[in-house]
Amino acid sequence: MKRAIRSVAVTMLGLMAFSVVWLTWVQTRAGAQYRDDPRNVRAFEAPAGPSRGRIITFDDVVVAEDDDGTRRYPEGRAYAHIVGFDSSSAQSGVERTRFAALASRHDGSLTAWLLRLLGADLGPPDVRLTIVDEVQQAAVAALGNRTGAVVAIDPRTGAVLAYVSSPSFDPNDVVSGELSPTDEGAAEALLDRVADHVLPPGSTFKVLVAAAAIRAGLNPDSEVEAGSSYTPPGGGMPIRNAGGEGCGGNPISLTRAMVVSCNTAFARLAVELGGDYVVAAAEAAGFNKAIPWETGAVVSSIPTGGELQADPPALAQTGIGERDVRVTPLLMALIAAAIANDGAAMAPYVVDSVVAPNGEVLESTDPRVLHRLVPRQAASALTEMMIAVVESGTGSPAAVAGIDIAAKTGTAEGSGGPHAWIIAFGPADDPTIAVAVVVEGGGSGGRVAGPIAAEVISAWIEFAR
Amino acid sequence: MTKRAEVALIVFAAAIVAVGTALVTLTADDRITIDTAAAAAAHLAAFGGLLLAIRAWAPAASRLLLPPVAFVTALGSIEVFRIDRDLGRIQRWWLLLAAVIATGALLLLRKPGVELLRRFRYLFLAAALGLLLLPLTPSSWPLGGATVNGSRLWVRLDLGDRTLSFQPGEAAKILLVIFLASFLADRWQALAAMPRSVGPIRLPEPRQLLPVLIAFGVSLAVLAYQKDLGASLLLFMTFVLLLFVATDRLTYLVAGGVLAVGGAFAAAAAFEHVAVRVDAWLRPFDDFAGGGYQVAQSIFALADAGIFGAGIGNGVPYLVPAAATDYVFVAITEEMGLAGGMATLAAYAILIAVGFGIALRAADRFRSLLAAGLAITLAVQTLLIVAGVLRILPLTGITLPFASYGGSALLSNLAIVALFARISHEERS
């Protein structure tokens, strides 16, 4: 009898052990397949948790909030690309990157319960952006319905002050289902032209060629060869200036070459400096590497120094920001900001802090240096030249009354007409804002993009005062 | 285990109930209600009282018995309350009543010991059969049968403005084990002696087998009529295993196995409610909206849980039909994860091992068979429902001992604990 009891007992306990093994397998290995089964509605059936926090601008304008369980975007199109949307099927922008931070920290766990007993506020926190609504709205208004992007950065910290991409969309339509983010027709409006779209920089790239020249020993007063036409060694299409004329003398100073945006001078300079020098300056500025950015940014690219050295016509065109040079407006703004900040580029960021409902700061972003573009002296030399561009050159439409602005314009070749570029910062003696503007197919950089930059800078100066 | 450790574990189980209940109301309503105190107090009173009763009337009993029971009861009561608060509140009263009845059993047996049960075995058999037949009484009677979920295994007591339902089959299972242990303790030699043979198969005298055959024949017929697959299987397996234990003859095990397999195929062919269960087991996703829904939802619940689960109050256990009864193990696992599921199974393993240990050390054959029969009942019932919800076997609707919602189940299972304590005590006195 005892032997039989033992064998029954062992069998029963063996079956219990088998159940444990089976349970482990179901919950770990087999689980994934069932979790993704479309008939598994558990995720949607989960009890609606406490509402999610708001997203607010630096100057306390609410740009995303909960309205009876769904997300609402009071500012609509103006913030569509940076704030993004949080619909039942998809998220984008800060709504996606800060999804977890916006959730209530009261998850029903014992830890949360104890934290609350200790007086912690576990309500859904707000995400505070660095964007200043007045600057953002000025940028939106200035760009209007033209295709392009405007981005403004505080060069001292890397805080993004404005972030506009056009055409835009209304995130409320995504939440309501009127607009499907996967529709092909929506792609143009959903594209983030600040960080996810590259264009040739045109003459704004001359700033980096000038940086390479300064590194090679030139200064703003150094004389450079300029003519009405320059044919690089190896032939190909001769480089000409806008309007087909000369640059007001030959040779001219490097400053003069910047002021009139002299193509022949910079093409020749690029070839004479060599591919390695030009590419090194570009890579020091952030080309060919990932720029850390809240919502992710595509890499701006330039061929290698060796490739360009072997192909002087390509190198000549690279020197004026054409051919295979591709850049995001975000990186162009970062270049302007680095020059404005004595040569050091601060890592760009858009989330200032995460704040609990009781005002407690749960998390805040500390500014940090991303990389050094040029040494301090080179930065002040570039600033000097860029001030001259606004005072007496192509950048004059970017002038703002009462303060010195430093800028460089660009008019890059585009299939639907030239892309109008400008990078600018001010006040030039103690810069607090750096801007990049591009209007795709917009025309001349100075005339089209310049006034937009001026509007944005004015709005910021007004706000900061 | 020291006495102090036993007390500490009982208090710990009550603390689990308090924390779990608090989390349920905190998650849903963001506040702690009186339920937290009530649930913990009921748990402490029931198991504390039972502990005192065992100390008083079965002091030499194993101290390993009560803590695992208190633990699984704690997890079950949290999930029952989480799924349906009213059921959870009712369950507290059932727990107290069950503890009172178990205490009463210990009090009754304190002088005569379990020997008392042996003397009245035919009374128990009659009572068991009567209880099994009770649900078949017309529903119009004041104490009448009732059909729930297609199975007629309930009795509803009409008390005027409200009714009280219970499953008499739960009590019948203990009574039948008592009868069988007593019967086999006296007759085992006759059953083990196999004077006849048909070819190579040796058989006992048919005369000896008759009472046994009648006992389970009648109970199985009644249960088949009541369409309660789980209880039917449980009783059958308990009979067969106990017969094997008493006689040491594999013949009974083999015959039982053949009967079980043949019976299963016959049942699947004859009864539609059995065929649906088998289909749901083999292909739950083929008839997702129909017969397979419960099994499929259970699989989703387990898959979503992961190692630590959704957290108490954060899952959606109510998506599985019969979550508080048949599927309470899935509810525990969904919200407390693989960790909670394993802890639950470990507690049952301890309890079952302790039960068989008591059977091995029992003072005489009757006590040994009684403890073994009760341990087999608990083990088979736990395995049937756990294997059913995990889809190792087809689901046979039956409660998970101590954890599922159900008053009658709790009453009879705590009575089993009282009997274990008494048999364990008598081994040393």
Verbal overview:
The complex is a heterodimer of chains A (465) and B (429). Chain A has 465 residues and is an alpha+beta fold. Chain A has helices at 2-28, 31-35, 42-45, 80-83, 93-97, 110-117, 133-143, 171-176, 187-190, 206-215, 254-259, 263-273, 275-285, 305-309, 312-318, 329-340, 376-392, 445-464, and strands at residues 55-56, 62-67, 70-72, 126-129, 148-153, 160-166, 223-224, 229-230, 239-240, 252-253, 344-346, 351-355, 361-364, 369-372, 406-412, 419-426, 433-439. Chain A has a 6-stranded mixed sheet with strand order 3-2-1-4-12-13. In chain A, strand 1 and strand 2 form a beta hairpin. In chain B, helix 8 (206-226) packs antiparallel against helix 9 (229-247). Chain B is built from 15 helices and 5 strands. Chain B is globular and about 70 Å long. The model of chain B has no long low-confidence stretch (mean pLDDT 85). At the A-B interface, helix 1, helix 2 and helix 3 of A face helix 1, helix 9, helix 12, helix 13 and helix 14 of B.
Largest sheet, spatial ordering of strands of chain B: 1-2-3
Most extensive contact: A-B, 43 and 60 residues
Radius of gyration of chain B: 21 Å
List the strand order in the largest sheet of chain A. Answer: 3-2-1-4-12-13
Q: How many angstroms does the end-to-end distance of chain A come to?
A: 96 Å
Question: Helicity level of chain A, as a percent range?
Answer: 25-40%
Mean pLDDT of chain A: 88
Please outline the major beta sheet of chain B: 3 strands, antiparallel
Radius of gyration of chain A: 28 Å
Number of alpha- plus pi-helical segments of chain A: 18
- Summing up helix and strand content along with how strands pair, one would put the structural category of chain A as alpha+beta
Poorly predicted residue ranges of chain B: none
